[in-house]
Amino acid sequence: MTDTSKTRLYLYYFVLLTLSLALFYCFHRMTIKHPEDYMYMEKCVLCIISSFFNIFVLFYHCTHAPHPKYLILAQRRFVIYIHILSGLLEFLTCWIAFCTGSERIATIAAIIAIVAHVPSAYYQTSIAFGAKAIMVAGYLFAINIHLFCALHLFFNPSSSYWLLNMFLVHNIYVWCRVLYAFFDFLGLFKDSLYTNSVVIASLILIPAVLGVSANMLFLGYVVSSILLYLIIVRPNKIDRTYYVGERTRNLLVNKDVHNNWFKETARLVRMNKDNELSDQQQAKLVFDLLDEDKNGYIDGEEINRLLKEWQTEENFRNRFFRWTKNGQISYENFYKNIWRLGETSIGHFQERQNKEGRARARFIFDCLDNDFNGYLDSIEIQKLLIQWGLPDNEVDAYLANDDDKQFSFDEFYHNLKPVWNFAYENMTLKDTDEVLKPVHDHSS
User: Fold this and answer.
1) What's this model's pTM, rounded to 2 decimal places?
2) What CATH fold (topology level) applies to the domain 255-342?
3) Fold of the domain spanning 357-435
4) If you compute the radius of gyration of the chain from its CA atoms, what whole number of angstroms results?
């Protein structure tokens, strides 16, 4: 990313912050005339349903591995633990305050939200999956209204109106997870499941807090943030695709574009029309096409242009350009690090069996060790971390403490448990006649 692009991006963040602050005025104007018992029964019903759903969501998170993007770096791990703990405390204190009428407990609930749950939510916004054009704005809107309600409750701890409002906004995520499971079960929104779940959850709960016109404000804020991004940042075609596309993780390459590239390569299509070529033969054919001077190497700049054409993840493009400073890519490196970018998951199958601990880590390690040399090298590790959603600077921070920039199995087992544990849960396993669906669709 150039300095000009960074400046535009920072300017966009500043304008979005200003727009977010303007929301507080809108929230104030929409709630100032509400009586204390505004939609009281409706809110109570929604709170009871939300609390019921919480049981299943908590059980799910207690029995399944969390996403690695929250656990790989120490600061992310610390923040997500703060977020989870503060969320549980806020849930409990809200219920205790409601049942007992205690102003002191209500004040504690508001403080927990203000100093812990809301800040930790802001911190996680940048790594939200789904369509960032909608997700980032949607997250900020929900977090802002959560802070707005918490501040009002802090100054009015006797108000059941603000207590119920804060509790409802707090439970938007719970509704998101429930809707996600429901839509997934029905097969709805397959290409935008997470984004639609978040949006619909917001449209259900926010009107109970702000009133019937709240959805117009929510949609207006999302649309405004998208238009500001397009006007201020002026993204190129690749960045715009990344911004509006649904992502359950950071795919290193746009698979559809990657596959279409081969279809548009006439020579490859002709030779492979009957699927007669193996994967390595196809890779060698493309390598030879790109190796114009037939010296056994491809120029690094040529590969960089190809990566852009495939709409490759920007973090990977920047890093790959640094990896190829000598401008020479051999066929072995091309096949290992470029050709297989189109793979979006660990494509291995095995007879169904339960693996735990070290055996589970060994299986994932062997899947990732493409050249079977007993190590995951720096490029393999960086590709893996980018796919798990770590921002570019956090990938550098993670590798800073690794002197040799490669991982043996023991290092992988001890240092990357969030990766191998989550990856194993989300692999497709073959059990004789049955192919099981991964637990999450956030796998890599």
Assistant:
1) 0.72
2) Recoverin; domain 1 (1.10.238)
3) Recoverin; domain 1 (1.10.238)
4) 25
